[in-house]
Amino acid sequence: DFVKITNILLSEKNVFSEQIASVAVSAIGPCMLPIDNSGSPLYSGILYGVDTRATKEIKFLNETIGEEKIFNFGGNTLTSQSIGPKILWLKNNHPEIYKKADKIVTSTTFVVKKLTNKCVIDHYTAANFTPLYDKSKLKWSDELSKGIIDISKLPELKWSTEIAGYITEKASLDTGLPKGVPVTVGTIDAAAEAISVGVKEIGDMMIMYGSTMFFIGLTSRNKSNKTLWSAPWLFEDEYALMAGTSTSGTITQWFKKEFAKDLNSDTVFEKLTKLAEKSPIGSNNLITLPYFSGERTPIQNPNACGIIFGLNLTHTRGDIYRSIIEGISFGANHIIETFKDSGFIPNKLFAVGGGVKNKIWTTAVSDISGLDQIVKSKTLGAAYGNAFLAALSIRDVKRTDIIDWNSNLLT
User: Fold this and answer.
1) Which tens digit of pLDDT belongs to each residue from 236-266?
2) Which residues pair with 214 in a beta bridge?
3) pTM (two decimals)
4) How far is 1 from 13, CA to CA, in rounded Å?
5) How many CB atoms lie within 10 A of CB 123?
């Protein structure tokens, strides 16, 4: 995909290779991918918190190490978001692959290694490798890693805007990018998405509306909360609290597939939204619990199930669809309330992602939470954030430029 995108940009979009000064990458995460010494995958990447296969390993590590010890060490409890249990799952179920692995990486690390032959990871991503990352000391630690992994198999730690390396000759031939162009360490897509909409100051929060919902709030202190996630932010001496649902847009996709087969696939969501608009607030007394694939924050329960409650023969397809959106929105508010309970009060709430096109969804979140949301007239997403981080890495812009850089897009 990366090669395809760069080839399109360089051949069809009037972008010339000599114009490219630096490259920044973000990708889905946190994930777990074993690679050999050439950077080739040895197994399919195991995704972030939506992949719950390591439940037994979480239980084992909590029992053998201790939940409090794990939390105090890394600032995070073990959940389906944690990479440590996923590594242990690989070791337990595919020991031959684990032994062959030169490194255990995440998706951004994988792409950067292909471009530069350097194996690096940013601190923000690394904090999700519980219980392998010591958040207070900002380093990998073998204090709790016995039986999980030799930490020499983990990537080198750096900050997101540090230069990881330079485009190699092979990468240049594959991508069309000039050899020798600097490549940053990069980060997870949601973090780059937050940068893209102007999340910059302490108290700023991003809500990403997508297949799942993701929340990032910037803090000045190294705070931790057992029902949220915490990490160093992309820059030194800054921190973040995060949260995420297991489902959101994926439920609407499920509804489309199972209950809207008669509607034109190109306009199905537009038609479903119009039907939902005819349903009153409260969806005619329908209640949906959106736990269709367990739940991440704040209940951290991979076995939670979804419910559509209160159905009777008077309910319409629009009622059910609206109830699903409202259920997702109440789930978002549950997370916002958890942030508040931890002492984080959002100053500005930036909304981003494909779901912001659904006015019922964004309106429901604001109505339920009582918080206004800032929505940009254009949201180019993580790639836009990456462009800024790439410019920042070569000092082409300053941190303080983030707001000015895209403030004209505010609506």
Assistant:
1) 999 999 999 999 999 999 999 999 999 988 8
2) 208, 244
3) 0.91
4) 17
5) 22
pLDDT digits (tens, 9 = 90+) for 92-145: 999 999 999 999 999 999 999 999 999 999 999 999 999 999 999 999 999 999
Closest CA to 352 of 216, 187, 251, 232: 216
C-alpha distances out from residue 102 to 35, 42, 285, Å: 6, 10, 55
Residue labelled with tokens 């895209």: 406
- Long-range residue pairs from 270-273, CB within 8 A, at least 24 positions apart, any chain: 272/317, 272/318, 272/321, 273/321, 273/358, 273/359, 273/360
Instruction: Say if residues 135 and 75 touch (Cβ distance below 8 Å).
Output: yes
- Tens of pLDDT, residue by residue over 369-390, are 999 999 987 777 899 899 999 9
For the record, the structure tokens of 364 come out as 């429901």
For helices 317-341 and 249-259, angle between their N-to-C axes, nearest 10 degrees = 170
What value, to the nearest 5°, has the Cα angle with vertex 368 and ends 362 and 371?
A: 70
**Is the predicted pLDDT of residue 76 greater than 70, yes or no?**
yes
